[in-house]
Structure formats: structure tokens, C-alpha cells
Amino acid sequence: VAYSSAYSIRLLTAYIDYSYTLPYVLLYASLFVLGLWSFGTYKRIWSQTSGHEITLIIKSLIVPLVITTFLNAGVVPRPLPWSVYIVGTMLTIAGMIAVRYRSRLLDGLTWRWHAIWKGEFPEIDSERVLVVGAGRSGRMAAWRLQRDFVDKHMRVIGFADDDAHKQGLYVENRPVLGTTEAIPQIVKDHQISLIVFAIHNIDGERFRRVLTACEETNTRIKVMPDFEQMLATTAHSQLLRDVLPEDLIGRGMVTRHHAISMKPVMGKVVLVTGAAGSIGSEISRQMATYEPTKLLLLDNNESGLYDLALDLKAAQPDVDIETILADVTQVGRVRDIFEEYRPQVVYHAAAYKHVPMCQKYPNEAVRVNIGGTYYVAEAANDFEAERFVLISTDKAVEPTNVMGASKRLCELVVHSMAQQSKGTKFTAVRFGNVLSSRGSVVPIFERQIERGGPVTVTHKDMMRFFMSIPEAANLVIHAACMTISDDIFVLRMGEEVRILDVAERLIRLRGLRPYVDIPINFTGIRPGEKLNEVLQYDDEELLDTDHPGITKLAHWSYEGETVSFLQKLSLLLDSGVRSEELALQELLTLSTDPRVMDQSDTESTKPPV
């Protein structure tokens, strides 16, 4: 078609013998088709591609162009006049691009028809969009909104961005209307009906500041996924989401840190205890992507274990997944599992984690947290697993409750096992609260808000470290790859967050007013709770690692005698705590750590005032 058009243009000024040149035209066309096929352009869904595919088309035409140019210059008489050849080749390239981008072009023309000739979109007053962030994510957000939501009558009016150099400039043919502080005025001046947040990897304080400005407008607020997810998302329903609790603390995207080699955990038999729990299930999901030889999921929660296995087998059908319904406190069963499957990497996430429950039932905390850790770690050592990773907590530092004290003793179990190791690398990973885990404050607050309140907060100054579940699991897996044994890794938790702020923000995100529409009641600090958690003792030094999200203790703060500690631990597991009222002091004394022993002598189990 392109060369015929070129001939028609040429025939206006000269006669050409078409019968001689026709075979060469067919040959040239065949060469172009072969070039396009060899570069895979016929396998593309062109309605869902971007401008990068133009480069692919040009690459696929280079070789045919070289061949046809030499043919046209070398054959006598010349197959095609140069004027026909050049014009025909240009029309060929333009036609190939136009045909493949026709749906994109038609969408753009449709959008501009409404904008130019009609002056507005149908129902445009209900969907005038302000994009917060004029960077790479903001530009992609505007492009996707205007491409994917033409039928939804959504129009990007402009951007808000704090970069002074972008003020007054245009991005995706839309102006940067002002800074984030000016959002209320921008919404008023331009009748904005939807604010789309498209800034990622920012700290929680900045996000909350921008969100406060957005909330002053009473305009709907949505969040675009991060840049990588945005590129991978094709469904319209997944392109915009509500503000999540993770956004409020400003945790960044979860990415695989390529500076850390994942070979120590790839292609291994991996055991995850507590696999049906919040952290254990996420570790299992992420480990399934690292091509384990076999993934062993151990838990005593039958329903949770069954559901997790179904999800993993659907997501990773090529991974050999084995469910093990067992209790980590059954030492004989634990050893049978290790003897049968010979796991090489062990993630020990099985534990009781709720402070009030462990405070009320200290012997159960001893049996599950301390006993479970001891039995699994001992089996890992005896059956020569390569790596054992304990999931610890910030409550193990300066513990004031039974749960924290039990996890501190779990850390000491890992330390003791490392001293007696037959080759297994033992490590513990310490971090703070995870958002949206079962029993954590966010799901509790959300349920209370749904019921109309009141929202209950223990103390107005209660502070906690928070991290998303996927991020915590990701960092735990990376820490396992970095251990050289007998070490404690501490995850970077960022800034502390006031629990009251989280509660108030969750209420506002529902379009409600704290203390007016939803009351907030202060219930008082529970037994064993602290206003602030810490991630290390005062004399513990944190060292940077190759991963920006992980630090490592320079040395263990425990100087007790390993054999004596394990002997005392065995007695505790056999008999339990002697007095539930004095359980905390008994556990702290067992650690034989002078600092916590001093603490146990001066502190009671009464809640702090």
C-alpha cells in the first residue's frame, strides 16, 4: 500500500513501468514483514503499549532497510526510482506505527473532541482530578487516568507539588498549580472533586502533613499504587485505592535489595513455623518466590494452614509445598519433622504475642515462646540445618511484661545454641509492631469505627514503632542471608508513631470527626505495658549492614554462662513459673543479665503509673 501510494505520487510527473518493479515491491514488503516477525512485534497487544514500542518497530525495520537499500542501488536497471523508494519507505514506517497505535490515537482524539469542541466532558463536574506529586509517579498517574478512564469522564486538571522549580510548568500537558500547602485553595479555584495522591517513598510525617491539607477540602482522596505496581496494573479497579494504614506511617515500597545475595535461601528446603500467623504467612508467600526445593508450612492452626496452602499453590503452582499440622512444643514431633524433611533454612515465627494474654497466662508464654524456640532450635542444630532465624520483638528490650521477658529468653536461647552449634548459623531479628496483624491496634480501631465507636486508646501519649507486614517479612528474609551466626539484627523502624494520632486519622479517613462523630475513650495502661518501646539497650551499639533497612548489634549484651542458662531453662520448662504473680521477676532473673536482674528487684508486676 505504501509503495503503491508512492507510485501514484510519482506518476504525476513521470511514467514508470509497474510490471518490472512489482516483483521487487513484493520482495521488499516480504523483507519488512520478516523483520517485524523476527523482533516479535506480532505478539504485542498494541492497545496496551507505550511509546517504547516505537523503538522496537524501528529496530525491526533496520535490517530490511539496509538490504532493500543495497538491492535498489546494486540491481541494474534500478528496481525502484529513488523517489518512490524513499517516499514508500517513509510511508511504510508511518503506516506500521499508525496501524499499531490506532486504538491509542482514537482514544486521544475522542478525549480531545470532548475537550475542544464540547468544552467539557460529560458529567465532568463530578470528576475533576488534582494529582498530588508531579514527579515520575505523578506523570504516570496522569497519563493512566486520562488513558484508562476516558469512559469514566475523568479529567486531570493539574498537579500540586512542593518542588519550587516545577511551579507554573506543565507535566503531561497539565499545569503545576501550586504546592501541597495550597491544595485547599486549588480545590476551591478549580472545582476539584477527586484528589489522587501519587508520591511514594516519603516519610510518615510528610504524608500526614499533605493528607491534612487534602482533608481540609472534604474532597474524595485516592492513592495510586507505586510506580512499579502502576506499570504492572491493567485493571481499572486496581488503579486507585483508598488510603491505607501503611500510608500513615510512610513506609516505602517493598523491594528486593539486589546488593544482598539471596543464594543462601534459594533452592533450599525451608521450614516456617507459625506459618498461619501474620508474619509467618507473609514469609511463606515471599519465600515461595525464591524457588525453594520444598516449602514446609508448620502450624497448629488447621484452618489457617489450609487456607495459606491453597493461596500459595494457586500463586506458585511449581513450588513443592508441604503443610505440617503440629505444635512446636511437642519435642518428639518436632524432631520427627526434622528427621523426615531435613530443613536447611528455618524461620521460627511461632509464638504468643499479645501482652495481656501472656501476662494472664505466663506458663503458656513459657511453654510456647521459650519452649517452642528451644525445641525447634535444638532440632535445627542436631539435624544440621544451615540457618535458624528467630522472629523477636522490641518488647524483648528492657522487658516490663511476661511476653517481652519470654522473647528476651528466646534471644538467649539462640545465643546459647550458637555457642554450641554444629554448623548451624543462628540469628535473631528484632523489630517493632506490624500493621494490620491479627489483634493489632489498626484492625481493632477499624472495627470500633464501623460500630460507631467508641475507639479505645490506653493512653494519649502511647507511642509505638510500626512496619508493614510485607516489609518486615522481606527484611527478615534478607537478614537470614547476611548472618554469620550468633548475631541479632534490628530492623530500621523509622519514627515512633503516637497511637492516638493513628486512631484520629483512621476516623477522619472515614469522613468522620474524632470526639464528635466517634468518641475516643482512654482506658489506662494495661499491666506490663510501656508508653515507649526501644529497640536496643543503652550499651548496645548498632552497626550498618549492606541493606539500608537492616542494622546489626555490634555484640551481645548478655554475659551469662551458656551451660548454666540452658540447665535453668530446662528446669523452667519442666516445672513452669512458680508464681504467676511474680512470673516477670522469675523470667528476668533466669536471664542472669545483671541489668534486667536489677530491674526485676526494683520493679513490680503492677502496671506503670
What features would you describe in this structure?
The protein is of the alpha/beta class and 609 residues long. It has 22 helices and 21 strands. It has a nine-stranded mixed β-sheet with strand order 9-8-7-10-11-12-17-21-20, sandwiched between helices. Strands 3-4-2-1-5-6 form a six-stranded mixed β-sheet, with helices on both faces. Strands 13-16 form a two-stranded parallel ribbon. Strand 3 (170-171) and strand 4 form a beta hairpin. Helix 1 runs antiparallel to helix 4 (82-100) and helix 3 (52-74) runs antiparallel to helix 4 (82-100). The radius of gyration is 32 Å and the shape is globular.
Please tally the β strands and state the result: 21
Computed over alpha carbons, the radius of gyration is 32 Å
For the biggest sheet, the summary is:
9 strands, mixed
Shape: globular
| Cα-to-Cα separation, first versus last residue | 87 Å
Poorly predicted sequence stretches spanning 5 or more consecutive residues: 118-125, 230-237, 594-609
Mean pLDDT level: 79
- Number of helical stretches of at least 4 residues: 22
Query: Which structural class best describes the helix and strand composition?
Result: alpha/beta
Give the amount of beta strand, in percent.
Answer: 5-15%
